[in-house]
Structures are given as structure tokens and as C-alpha cells.
Amino acid sequence: MKKIIYFHGFGSSGASGTVATLRRLLPDVAIVAPDIPIDPIDALPYLKTLCKSESPDLIIGTSMGGMYAHQMHGYKRICVNPAINMSTTSKVLKTGTFKFFNRRKDNAKEFKITKDIIQHYNSIERQQFKDITEKDKTDCYGLFGIHDKTVNTYDLFKKHYPNVKRFDGEHRLNEKIIKSVVLPLIKDLIYTEQTIQ
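RESULT FIELD:
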């Protein structure tokens, strides 16, 4: 059975609507959807360890999850509207206490953002494009909604990765976009055997 790991966006969880839709549309694929720690100092090593233990055929990340997904070197990745500069441009990353959008496995209802956590994002973001190999570049795909008012990292992403595509959509995915844009790319990446050169 093929396996996908899905990285959710900021303030969300592995119980997001996108995960439910992917599971329904891909019944023959195992979808692993972790709850990502809030602090990137915890999140990045956690996700790297998870990928190593799960050995996915594909990693998909949306928004903040896309920022983490592209850093999972050695795997095929799809990054949808990746928030690769949250600490400097995001309207959502600010200090305070916030409610999670979706149910978390630990039943946490709220999370806190501190100045230290914002600084951790900034530190991770400054390092995120280091050590990218040519294979990492060709194995990473960026999908960008042309009506995305939340994040606009198309130009920055394109500087590092050649496989980018714009779609007629906004920041958040819906079933129509998943079916018309994301699903065909998923199927192409996990079911098409690539020739070894």
C-alpha cells in the first residue's frame, strides 16, 4: 500500500478537513496525519523522525506544513501555498493565546505563541534552503493559489524549486481544488515509476 504523510497548516491538526477528503478520495493509500508541535524547534526534528520511521511515498504540506514539507529532503513532496516566511510576513503568527481550528489528539483546545516561538520560526526560515540537492529540487512541487491573500511565496519558492504551478484558488484547499489540482499530481507522483538515470 502506498503511503502519504500530510503536514497541516498553522493552528490546525491531523484531523483537518483536507485529511478527511484525501482519505475518501484515495481509499487505497495510507494517509498519516500527525499533529505538528507549535514550536518549530520541536516540530522540524519531530517531522524528520516521523518521515524516517514511516518511509512515505509522498509528503504533502499546506501553508505552514508546506514550509516543513519542502525541508524533508530525500522524499517526493508537494507544497501547497507554503508559508516559508511566516515570521516576517504572516498576519497569523503573533503573540497571544489562540484556539486550534481542529481537534488535536491530545485534546488541547488552545495554543500560545510567544516572542521566542516567533524567533524560532525566523531562525528555521533563515536555514530552510540550505543543503538542497538537485534531486531535492526536482522532487519538490509547489502549488500556488492565484487568489491567495494569506501567503504569497511563489517567487521565493521558484528561486529554489523548478516545479511550480499556479491554480485558480485561494489559500485553503477545498474539495474542488483537491480533485482538480492536487489529486492528479499525487497520482502522477506515487503511481508513475520514474526511470533511474
